[in-house]
Amino acid sequence: MALDGKIAIVTGGAQGIGLAIARRFLQDGASVMLADINDAQGAAAVKELSPLGKVRFSSTDVSSRLDVHNLVAGTIEAFGDVDILVNNAGIVHTADFLDLNEDDFDRVLRVNLKGSFLCGQAVARYMVKKIKDGGNAGSIVNMSSINAVVGLPEQIAYSVSKGGVSQLTKVMALSLAPYGIRVNAIGPGSIKTQMLDTVNSDMAAKQRILSRTPLGRVGEPSEIAAVAAFLASDDASYITGQTIYADGGRLPLNYTVPVNG
User: Fold this and answer.
1) How many whole angstroms separate alpha carbon 88 and alpha carbon 12?
2) Annotated catalytic residue: which of 126, 158, 179, 255?
3) Which DSSP state fits 45?
4) How far is residue 55's CA from residue 52's CA, in Å, rounded to a whole number?
5) What is the CA radius of gyration of the chain?
6) Which top CATH class is 7-194+221-246?
7) Which residues have a Cβ under 8 Å from the Cβ of 134 and sit 6 or more positions away?
8) 149 and 187 in contact (C-beta within 8 Å)?
9) Domain boundaries of the chain, sorted by first residue
10) Crossing angle of helices 16-27/221-232, nearest 10°?
11) Which residues contact 140 (CB under 8 A, 6 or more apart)?
Protein backbone atom coordinates (compact mmCIF):
# COMPACT_ATOMS: atom_id res chain seq x y z
CA MET A 1 0.00 0.00 0.00
CA ALA A 2 1.15 3.54 -0.84
CA LEU A 3 1.49 4.70 2.78
CA ASP A 4 2.42 1.41 4.36
CA GLY A 5 4.23 1.95 7.67
CA LYS A 6 3.89 5.76 7.61
CA ILE A 7 2.77 7.79 10.63
CA ALA A 8 0.38 10.67 9.92
CA ILE A 9 -1.12 13.55 11.89
CA VAL A 10 -4.44 14.87 10.56
CA THR A 11 -5.74 18.03 12.21
CA GLY A 12 -9.45 18.69 12.14
CA GLY A 13 -9.66 14.94 11.76
CA ALA A 14 -12.84 14.22 13.69
CA GLN A 15 -15.26 15.03 10.88
CA GLY A 16 -15.69 16.01 7.25
CA ILE A 17 -12.66 16.13 4.99
CA GLY A 18 -10.25 15.41 7.85
CA LEU A 19 -12.10 12.25 8.79
CA ALA A 20 -12.15 11.15 5.15
CA ILE A 21 -8.40 11.75 4.88
CA ALA A 22 -7.75 9.74 8.04
CA ARG A 23 -9.86 6.89 6.66
CA ARG A 24 -8.00 6.88 3.35
CA PHE A 25 -4.60 7.00 5.06
CA LEU A 26 -5.52 4.00 7.20
CA GLN A 27 -6.74 2.13 4.14
CA ASP A 28 -3.41 2.92 2.47
CA GLY A 29 -1.44 1.44 5.37
CA ALA A 30 -0.62 4.45 7.57
CA SER A 31 -1.15 4.86 11.31
CA VAL A 32 -3.02 8.06 12.14
CA MET A 33 -3.19 10.55 14.99
CA LEU A 34 -6.43 12.50 14.78
CA ALA A 35 -6.19 16.01 16.21
CA ASP A 36 -9.33 17.98 16.90
CA ILE A 37 -10.81 20.37 19.44
CA ASN A 38 -14.02 18.34 19.67
CA ASP A 39 -13.34 15.50 22.13
CA ALA A 40 -16.67 13.71 21.65
CA GLN A 41 -16.37 13.63 17.87
CA GLY A 42 -12.73 12.61 18.18
CA ALA A 43 -13.63 9.62 20.33
CA ALA A 44 -16.40 8.65 17.92
CA ALA A 45 -14.02 8.93 14.97
CA VAL A 46 -11.47 6.64 16.64
CA LYS A 47 -14.20 4.09 17.32
CA GLU A 48 -15.35 4.27 13.70
CA LEU A 49 -11.87 4.02 12.19
CA SER A 50 -10.21 1.53 14.56
CA PRO A 51 -11.18 -1.52 12.48
CA LEU A 52 -9.08 -0.09 9.62
CA GLY A 53 -5.80 0.22 11.51
CA LYS A 54 -3.91 2.03 14.25
CA VAL A 55 -5.58 5.34 15.12
CA ARG A 56 -5.44 7.61 18.16
CA PHE A 57 -6.97 10.93 19.14
CA SER A 58 -5.33 14.05 20.54
CA SER A 59 -7.48 16.86 21.91
CA THR A 60 -5.82 19.81 20.21
CA ASP A 61 -6.38 23.51 19.65
CA VAL A 62 -4.08 24.10 16.68
CA SER A 63 -3.82 27.80 17.51
CA SER A 64 -2.13 26.93 20.84
CA ARG A 65 1.63 26.35 20.68
CA LEU A 66 1.49 24.15 23.80
CA ASP A 67 -1.29 22.00 22.35
CA VAL A 68 0.66 21.60 19.13
CA HIS A 69 3.81 20.63 21.05
CA ASN A 70 1.81 18.03 22.96
CA LEU A 71 0.27 16.75 19.72
CA VAL A 72 3.62 16.09 18.10
CA ALA A 73 5.12 14.63 21.29
CA GLY A 74 2.05 12.44 21.81
CA THR A 75 2.22 11.15 18.24
CA ILE A 76 5.87 10.20 18.63
CA GLU A 77 5.10 8.54 21.96
CA ALA A 78 2.18 6.58 20.50
CA PHE A 79 3.68 5.59 17.14
CA GLY A 80 7.40 6.34 17.34
CA ASP A 81 7.59 8.79 14.44
CA VAL A 82 5.86 11.41 12.27
CA ASP A 83 6.10 11.10 8.48
CA ILE A 84 3.06 13.07 7.31
CA LEU A 85 1.18 16.13 8.50
CA VAL A 86 -2.16 17.24 7.08
CA ASN A 87 -3.08 20.74 8.22
CA ASN A 88 -6.83 20.43 7.77
CA ALA A 89 -8.29 22.16 10.86
CA GLY A 90 -10.34 25.17 9.83
CA ILE A 91 -13.34 27.29 10.75
CA VAL A 92 -15.57 29.81 9.00
CA HIS A 93 -17.40 32.93 10.10
CA THR A 94 -20.07 34.49 7.93
CA ALA A 95 -20.43 38.28 8.00
CA ASP A 96 -20.57 41.23 5.64
CA PHE A 97 -17.32 43.17 5.38
CA LEU A 98 -18.85 46.24 7.05
CA ASP A 99 -20.13 44.16 9.96
CA LEU A 100 -17.23 41.75 10.53
CA ASN A 101 -16.01 41.88 14.12
CA GLU A 102 -12.28 42.12 14.75
CA ASP A 103 -12.37 39.22 17.23
CA ASP A 104 -14.06 36.96 14.67
CA PHE A 105 -11.53 37.94 11.99
CA ASP A 106 -8.67 37.14 14.39
CA ARG A 107 -10.27 33.85 15.47
CA VAL A 108 -10.54 32.52 11.92
CA LEU A 109 -6.97 33.49 11.03
CA ARG A 110 -5.70 32.08 14.32
CA VAL A 111 -7.10 28.62 13.54
CA ASN A 112 -6.80 28.46 9.76
CA LEU A 113 -3.49 30.22 9.17
CA LYS A 114 -1.60 30.41 12.46
CA GLY A 115 -2.63 26.81 13.22
CA SER A 116 -1.11 25.62 9.95
CA PHE A 117 2.06 27.57 10.71
CA LEU A 118 2.40 26.21 14.26
CA CYS A 119 1.72 22.59 13.30
CA GLY A 120 3.88 22.82 10.18
CA GLN A 121 6.79 24.33 12.07
CA ALA A 122 6.61 21.83 14.94
CA VAL A 123 6.45 18.81 12.64
CA ALA A 124 9.12 20.19 10.31
CA ARG A 125 11.51 20.78 13.22
CA TYR A 126 11.07 17.14 14.24
CA MET A 127 11.52 15.95 10.65
CA VAL A 128 14.72 17.97 10.17
CA LYS A 129 16.18 16.54 13.38
CA LYS A 130 15.23 13.05 12.22
CA ILE A 131 16.84 13.60 8.82
CA LYS A 132 20.07 14.84 10.42
CA ASP A 133 20.06 11.64 12.46
CA GLY A 134 19.78 9.56 9.29
CA GLY A 135 15.98 9.26 9.05
CA ASN A 136 13.68 9.73 6.08
CA ALA A 137 12.15 13.02 4.93
CA GLY A 138 8.42 13.53 5.19
CA SER A 139 5.52 15.32 3.56
CA ILE A 140 3.23 18.15 4.69
CA VAL A 141 -0.17 18.83 3.11
CA ASN A 142 -1.98 22.09 3.87
CA MET A 143 -5.68 22.59 3.27
CA SER A 144 -6.27 25.72 1.22
CA SER A 145 -9.41 26.46 -0.82
CA ILE A 146 -10.54 27.88 -4.12
CA ASN A 147 -11.38 30.89 -1.94
CA ALA A 148 -7.65 31.58 -1.82
CA VAL A 149 -8.10 32.65 -5.46
CA VAL A 150 -11.73 33.75 -5.74
CA GLY A 151 -13.63 35.52 -2.99
CA LEU A 152 -17.00 35.44 -1.28
CA PRO A 153 -18.13 38.80 0.15
CA GLU A 154 -19.53 37.21 3.30
CA GLN A 155 -16.46 35.03 3.96
CA ILE A 156 -13.78 37.69 4.36
CA ALA A 157 -11.72 36.11 7.11
CA TYR A 158 -11.93 32.62 5.60
CA SER A 159 -10.84 33.82 2.15
CA VAL A 160 -7.96 35.83 3.61
CA SER A 161 -6.84 32.88 5.74
CA LYS A 162 -6.84 30.50 2.79
CA GLY A 163 -4.89 32.95 0.66
CA GLY A 164 -2.37 33.00 3.48
CA VAL A 165 -2.28 29.19 3.55
CA SER A 166 -1.43 29.10 -0.16
CA GLN A 167 1.49 31.48 0.37
CA LEU A 168 2.54 29.63 3.52
CA THR A 169 2.68 26.45 1.44
CA LYS A 170 5.08 28.04 -1.05
CA VAL A 171 7.48 29.49 1.51
CA MET A 172 7.43 26.32 3.60
CA ALA A 173 8.22 24.28 0.50
CA LEU A 174 11.16 26.50 -0.40
CA SER A 175 12.48 26.58 3.15
CA LEU A 176 12.26 22.82 3.64
CA ALA A 177 13.32 21.67 0.16
CA PRO A 178 17.02 21.42 1.18
CA TYR A 179 15.98 18.72 3.66
CA GLY A 180 13.85 16.83 1.15
CA ILE A 181 10.63 17.67 2.99
CA ARG A 182 7.82 18.28 0.52
CA VAL A 183 5.02 20.78 1.23
CA ASN A 184 1.91 21.03 -0.93
CA ALA A 185 -1.69 22.14 -0.57
CA ILE A 186 -5.17 21.16 -1.69
CA GLY A 187 -7.73 23.75 -2.73
CA PRO A 188 -11.17 22.14 -2.55
CA GLY A 189 -14.22 23.58 -4.24
CA SER A 190 -17.71 22.82 -2.94
CA ILE A 191 -17.45 19.59 -0.95
CA LYS A 192 -20.24 17.67 0.78
CA THR A 193 -19.40 18.46 4.41
CA GLN A 194 -21.23 20.03 7.35
CA MET A 195 -20.18 23.46 6.05
CA LEU A 196 -22.40 22.80 3.05
CA ASP A 197 -25.37 21.34 4.93
CA THR A 198 -27.63 24.22 3.89
CA VAL A 199 -27.36 23.08 0.27
CA ASN A 200 -29.42 20.00 1.11
CA SER A 201 -32.43 22.11 2.07
CA ASP A 202 -31.85 25.36 0.15
CA MET A 203 -32.55 24.81 -3.55
CA ALA A 204 -31.43 28.32 -4.49
CA ALA A 205 -28.06 27.77 -2.79
CA LYS A 206 -27.69 24.44 -4.55
CA GLN A 207 -28.46 26.07 -7.91
CA ARG A 208 -25.82 28.76 -7.30
CA ILE A 209 -23.16 26.16 -6.51
CA LEU A 210 -23.98 23.88 -9.43
CA SER A 211 -24.23 26.77 -11.90
CA ARG A 212 -20.53 27.49 -11.34
CA THR A 213 -19.40 23.84 -11.26
CA PRO A 214 -18.82 22.35 -14.73
CA LEU A 215 -18.86 18.76 -13.46
CA GLY A 216 -22.41 19.43 -12.27
CA ARG A 217 -22.17 18.07 -8.73
CA VAL A 218 -20.76 18.72 -5.28
CA GLY A 219 -17.52 16.93 -4.46
CA GLU A 220 -17.18 14.10 -1.95
CA PRO A 221 -14.77 14.25 1.03
CA SER A 222 -13.26 10.99 -0.24
CA GLU A 223 -12.20 12.76 -3.43
CA ILE A 224 -10.19 15.30 -1.44
CA ALA A 225 -8.78 12.44 0.64
CA ALA A 226 -7.54 10.78 -2.55
CA VAL A 227 -5.57 13.93 -3.44
CA ALA A 228 -4.12 14.09 0.08
CA ALA A 229 -3.06 10.44 -0.12
CA PHE A 230 -1.32 11.09 -3.44
CA LEU A 231 0.54 14.18 -2.19
CA ALA A 232 1.61 12.36 0.98
CA SER A 233 2.93 9.36 -0.94
CA ASP A 234 6.15 8.74 -2.86
CA ASP A 235 4.10 8.93 -6.07
CA ALA A 236 4.34 12.72 -5.60
CA SER A 237 8.07 12.65 -4.86
CA TYR A 238 8.92 15.46 -7.30
CA ILE A 239 6.02 17.75 -6.35
CA THR A 240 6.46 20.53 -3.80
CA GLY A 241 5.16 24.07 -3.35
CA GLN A 242 2.02 23.33 -5.37
CA THR A 243 -1.69 23.68 -4.72
CA ILE A 244 -3.98 21.17 -6.40
CA TYR A 245 -7.46 22.61 -6.91
CA ALA A 246 -10.05 19.84 -6.70
CA ASP A 247 -13.05 21.98 -7.61
CA GLY A 248 -15.08 20.27 -10.31
CA GLY A 249 -13.74 22.75 -12.87
CA ARG A 250 -14.87 25.92 -11.11
CA LEU A 251 -11.69 28.01 -11.29
CA PRO A 252 -11.28 27.78 -15.10
CA LEU A 253 -14.95 28.72 -15.59
CA ASN A 254 -15.76 32.14 -17.06
CA TYR A 255 -19.52 31.65 -17.35
CA THR A 256 -22.37 29.84 -15.61
CA VAL A 257 -23.55 26.42 -16.71
CA PRO A 258 -27.15 25.14 -17.03
CA VAL A 259 -28.41 23.22 -14.04
CA ASN A 260 -30.87 20.33 -14.15
CA GLY A 261 -33.31 19.88 -11.32
Assistant:
1) 5
2) 158
3) H
4) 8
5) 18
6) alpha beta
7) none
8) yes
9) 7-194+221-246
10) 50
11) 84, 85, 86, 87, 120, 123, 124, 172, 176, 181, 182, 183, 184
- CA-wise closest residue to 2 among 256, 255, 257, 235: 235
Which of 169, 2, 190, 149 lies closest to 85, judged by CA?
A: 169
Global pTM reads 0.95
Rounded Cα distance between 82 and 25, Å, is 13
| SS3 letters across 191-248 | ECCHHHCHHHHCHHHHHHHHHCCCCCCCECHHHHHHHHHHHHCHHHCCCCCCEEEECC
Q: In what order do the strands lie in the sheet with 139-143?
A: 55-59, 31-36, 7-11, 84-87, 139-143, 182-188, 243-246
Q: How many CB atoms lie within 10 A of CB 150?
A: 13
Per-residue pLDDT of the chain (261 residues; tens, 9 = 90+): 799 999 999 999 999 999 999 999 999 999 999 999 999 999 999 999 999 999 999 999 999 999 999 999 999 999 999 999 999 999 999 999 999 999 999 999 999 999 999 999 999 999 999 999 999 999 999 999 999 999 889 999 999 999 999 999 999 999 999 999 999 999 999 999 876 665 566 778 788 888 999 999 999 999 999 999 999 999 999 999 999 999 999 999 988 878 876
CA distance 107 to 168: 18
Active site residue 158: yes
Helix (H, G, I), strand (E, B) or coil at 32: strand
